[in-house]
Amino acid sequence: MTNLAVKLPGLSLKNPVMPASGCFGFGREYSKFYDLGKLGAVIIKAATGSELFGNPTPRVAETPSGMLNAIGLQNPGVEKIIEHELPFLSQCEIPVIANVAGSIIDEYEMVAKAFNQTDMVNALELNISCPNVKQGGMQFGTDPKMAAMVTERVKRVSNLPVYVKLSPNVTDIKKMAKAVEAAGADGISMINTLTGMQIDLKSRKPLLANQTGGLSGPAIKPVAIRMIDEVKQHVSIPIIGMGGISSAEDVLEFLLAGADAVAVGTANFQNPLICPEIIEELPGVLHRFGFDSVADAVGKGGSHAHV
Amino acid sequence: MTNLAVKLPGLSLKNPVMPASGCFGFGREYSKFYDLGKLGAVIIKAATGSELFGNPTPRVAETPSGMLNAIGLQNPGVEKIIEHELPFLSQCEIPVIANVAGSIIDEYEMVAKAFNQTDMVNALELNISCPNVKQGGMQFGTDPKMAAMVTERVKRVSNLPVYVKLSPNVTDIKKMAKAVEAAGADGISMINTLTGMQIDLKSRKPLLANQTGGLSGPAIKPVAIRMIDEVKQHVSIPIIGMGGISSAEDVLEFLLAGADAVAVGTANFQNPLICPEIIEELPGVLHRFGFDSVADAVGKGGSHAHV
Amino acid sequence: MIKKEMVRVESSSLVARDTVKMVLENEYISRLAVPGQFLHVEAAGHTLRRPISIADADREIGTVTIIFRVTGSGTKQLASCQPGMTLTVLGPNGNGFPFMQAGSRVLLIGGGIGVPPLYYLGRSLAVKPCTVKAILGFQSAADVFYEKEFREFAGTVIVTNDGSFGEKGLVTDVIEQAGSFDYYYTCGPTPMLQAVTRKLKRKPGFVSMEEYMGCGVGACFACAIPARDGGYKKICKDGPVFPAEEVRL
Amino acid sequence: MIKKEMVRVESSSLVARDTVKMVLENEYISRLAVPGQFLHVEAAGHTLRRPISIADADREIGTVTIIFRVTGSGTKQLASCQPGMTLTVLGPNGNGFPFMQAGSRVLLIGGGIGVPPLYYLGRSLAVKPCTVKAILGFQSAADVFYEKEFREFAGTVIVTNDGSFGEKGLVTDVIEQAGSFDYYYTCGPTPMLQAVTRKLKRKPGFVSMEEYMGCGVGACFACAIPARDGGYKKICKDGPVFPAEEVRL
Ligand SMILES: Cc1cc2nc3c(=O)[nH]c(=O)nc-3n(C[C@H](O)[C@H](O)[C@H](O)COP(=O)(O)OP(=O)(O)OC[C@H]3O[C@@H](n4cnc5c(N)ncnc54)[C@H](O)[C@@H]3O)c2cc1C
Ligand SMILES: Cc1cc2nc3c(=O)[nH]c(=O)nc-3n(C[C@H](O)[C@H](O)[C@H](O)COP(=O)(O)OP(=O)(O)OC[C@H]3O[C@@H](n4cnc5c(N)ncnc54)[C@H](O)[C@@H]3O)c2cc1C
Ligand SMILES: Cc1cc2nc3c(=O)[nH]c(=O)nc-3n(C[C@H](O)[C@H](O)[C@H](O)COP(=O)(O)O)c2cc1C
Ligand SMILES: Cc1cc2nc3c(=O)[nH]c(=O)nc-3n(C[C@H](O)[C@H](O)[C@H](O)COP(=O)(O)O)c2cc1C
Ligand code: FES
Ligand code: FES
Known about the structure:
The complex is a heterotetramer, with two copies of chain A and two copies of chain C. By secondary structure, chain A is α/β, with parallel strands linked by helices. Chain A has helices at 28-31, 78-91, 105-116, 138-142, 144-157, 173-182, 221-232, 248-257, 267-270, 274-288, 294-297, and strands at 6-8, 11-13, 17-19, 42-43, 60-63, 66-69, 96-100, 123-127, 162-165, 187-190, 194-197, 199-200, 205-206, 212-216, 239-242, 261-264. In chain A, strands 3-16-15-10-9-8-7-4 form an eight-stranded parallel sheet. Chain A has a four-stranded antiparallel sheet with strand order 5-6-14-11, with no helix packed on it. In chain A, helix 6 (173-182) links the parallel strand 9 (162-165) and strand 10 (187-190). Chain C starts with a strand and ends in a 6-residue tail after the last strand. Chain C has helices spanning 27-32, 73-79, 115-126, 147-151, 190-199; strands spanning 3-16, 19-25, 38-41, 50-53, 56-58, 63-69, 86-93, 105-111, 131-138, 154-160, 167-168, 183-187, 205-208, 224-226, 232-234, 241-243. Chain C is α/β, with parallel strands linked by helices. Chains in contact: A-B, A-C, B-D. Chains A and B meet through strand 11, strand 12, strand 13, helix 7 and helix 8 of A and strand 11, strand 12, strand 13, helix 7 and helix 8 of B. One FE2/S2 (inorganic) cluster binds next to loops of chain C.
């Protein structure tokens, strides 16, 4: 039997596959397609201190092998999420990772505190890398000092393990990773979206009302793999890898690069059953390439494995 | 008649379309497919001070809507290029842009000087952004001070207009652009490739012998458009845009974003006739979207056109 | 309930310029489909699915019909699908048009590719029976489709922007001609919806809306639009049909 | 001269496990193709073309044959092309095997998907006439193809790694059986080429090489490999066939 289980700070995953934040809402919609209990975990949509209505539409655009989004962190606010959304997920008996966002550090703290007080969340994912909001987000995600500061402050108010989600829109991803590790992060999530733009030829305007958006999907997979490989060599905390995953083979590629678990985002839109399908195929794929377990494969194929 | 002509420092282009550096060699091979005289210009493969043999193979890998390459700047060296390659291009009566690379500033200077002494080159493109060589390249392309220094030094020894080719692997592309403009650059080329990696599941190693490579092709187009839009708002020198162009519609999107001319790279591999095909279709596409000339469209659709 | 279903293309034909009618075999969807709902259709080689309204459904033989205009690369790819090929769709998605009680007089106002869902709706209302009238607007004669089909159950006025077929003008120019009615249902481009709802603001009506979509099932917030009450609505899940007074156009 | 040509798939059939033989109609390429050259074949939906050797050509009826193994998504896509469909190829690319004078005795040594170009070569040499012998290596019985075809013009020995067909072992294990010859031609996986050229280092021979390609026409330096003389060779343009002593394997 191929062992799919993964142990990460605060998380006992029966398999390494979870839907990525923002691509799965709070789970309700996809629970109509399959039993969420099959998932390794769920990462929920970003929560902010109070309700956010997000950007004007259009908020998504299609690109070659990918898409742009500029949702703008729309969410009901942390209190309503705890009240109306988490109880549903709790029934599913899978670990829940709450994605935390804010425009100032106090807001991150406040949201983290709120999640910390429930027993319905197993870990936090700090979204310091959302390119689609005017304030916060990105600026924390591109400056190592700011990133470290948010991490530290959130760690201080929270007993939950903290995974910091890194932005790929930086010159030196290692620096970001090392800064958040030093600040106490329990793990790293990577990558968030690359900032991109599409211009509509007819209207002669950026297609997205927000003008720029985050590029996700298979198009960015090589960037994700490269960055995970790079970061893996410089930190010792675990990595949740994401960026363009749409098959069990992709999952293995992320594990080889150094991811300890993975998240699937954009691919849910094309195939709502993608997560359980990948989970079902993963043992066969691991076996085909000579691995007995997920743990076996982690980090076995990155550049550090050979240099 | 739709006017396709573009005037840029040192370059009178009859149309805005040229093959991108490294994707067209020195023109010979593609001259067997069509008359190079149809092109707006040609950007030749990077030249270094002496012959470079490049990286071990495999040097290319396919990715979703794109490819990775790690050629490693293989080229015969500037002297041999001037002697054996440029005379052929001179016959074609199109502007030639020489891509200049090096591992130290002296080498850039030396190569620029050599090209400057011929009358077969119309402009230089400084490749400060090649991710595939251990020294130089990237390090100049990610630090605004270094980029400015190379630009300044090359400008000092060369009468030819200098286009600086920017790397997208940076946190703040504006800063890079402003730094090279201040240092005297006559124009900007953007974007070079995004650094990426692909891992071969069977061998459990990065597929490229060089481990990482540069991501190009349609996958990166949204990043290119976003960066051009961003830079356009902060510099007043012209931009040669590139990154994933494979149709006349794509060319128009780049013009709208703020590019004054464009280069086509990866698409040549799929369709060796892509450049003349695009040139032929461009008037129709411009017309369909309400433009009488290329100049008319430049910068008409970026975010700055509306904010 | 939305499912991911395989459908077999039974037939595909051009009903107007760049406008394709495709009949898809799928028992489950044909059985559940309600007028106003849509399918989220796979376009091979594309990251995102395309939302296309259900233009008709036949439970007996287990088919649903879609009618779409080839506007970009996804619908072009779809249009190239030959009979016999299979594709996956998510569906039926969203909430359809609410039916009013038998005996009501309803007016359908459709523009361009907003016409298809009104066909299934009108046909269904007519058998209740309701009295159905239709105003259908198109760019020009080459774009007109389903006139005959609508006439089978509804007094139908066709308008074209250039007057090359039917009346010349916009749908709002001929609303008076339709006489009195109790409810209206409208679907079409946003400017048309704005004009219609403004003109008919004292009448109860329902609008079917469009927005760029990610998931199509309510999970990604791509299609969220402000609601009149200050909250928001997801077009894919709460809509695409809304009471005219509930949304800001 | 290499051109970009449309080809029509005339037939497509499985000749061994995961191994597809495809006959392509194109007058120009059939007329110019020389054994050892390759086509750079479009795989729909893929950025890069796939290099596939010309396995045969028929000038009379204007066809070229390719034989390829389905290894990844590009060849899978190619394998799905039905007769009647068209694709574009660049070709004929590269330099083929040089022919030796009539009367020579030649040995062909092929491994797996390195076998196809040797078929066209052997058939062409046999009519010069040359005396042709062939050693063909495969993984196992299910992978063997073209045995009968080779026997039509060459004394042929088949070896399989697992002995499930012909002799058990590697091609180098049976070279002695082939008796004496003047030249050898070999194509197959790199380890095989290394073993063969080492074993036959005193014999004049020609190897056909593989490398990941970008442009396929000599412009991008993707396929450049070091040459023995200290320079380099582009496999796509200077090769894929090289005199054995010229390249470092
Ligand atoms: C609920 C709903 C029902 C619809 N019903 C129909 C119908 O019955 N017949 C019909 O012809 N069209 C219908 N449309 C519009 C149809 O979805 C678009 O024309 C189609 O998605 C365009 O795809 P494309 O690849 O041709 O264009 P592209 O412009 O290449 O598409 C690029 C991206 O933008 C999206 N997009 C482009 N235009 C629209 C649009 N108007 N609305 C939503 N997304 C868009 C595409 O889905 C895709 O993600 C409907 C839209 C919605 C939201
Ligand atoms: C000159 C030449 C002649 C060839 N002739 C034949 C032939 O007659 N029959 C046959 O079955 N195969 C032949 N090959 C190998 C064939 O090109 C590859 O098997 C094929 O490209 C794999 O594509 P894929 O999409 O199935 O695999 P993938 O692994 O999905 O391909 C990914 C990328 O890697 C490249 N690639 C993968 N394997 C190889 C390889 N071995 N050589 C070069 N590029 C590769 C692909 O072209 C593509 O760009 C030849 C290769 C060369 C260079
Ligand atoms: C529509 C959409 C919404 C997203 N919202 C969030 C979010 O709220 N918080 C976050 O950290 N990441 C968000 N992301 C980023 C994803 O979680 C993921 O990091 C990224 O999309 C790359 O993975 P993918 O290529 O599998 O989609 C969002 C992505 C998409 C496409
Ligand atoms: C195989 C290959 C080789 C390249 N070599 C060079 C080079 O020598 N110098 C350079 O400045 N850019 C080089 N580039 C980058 C291209 O010029 C171009 O900036 C990039 O590929 C994006 O454009 P595209 O998506 O159209 O390919 C190379 C790209 C490829 C794919
Ligand atoms: S499209 Fe995802 S919520 Fe509507
Ligand atoms: S593949 Fe481009 S030079 Fe050979």
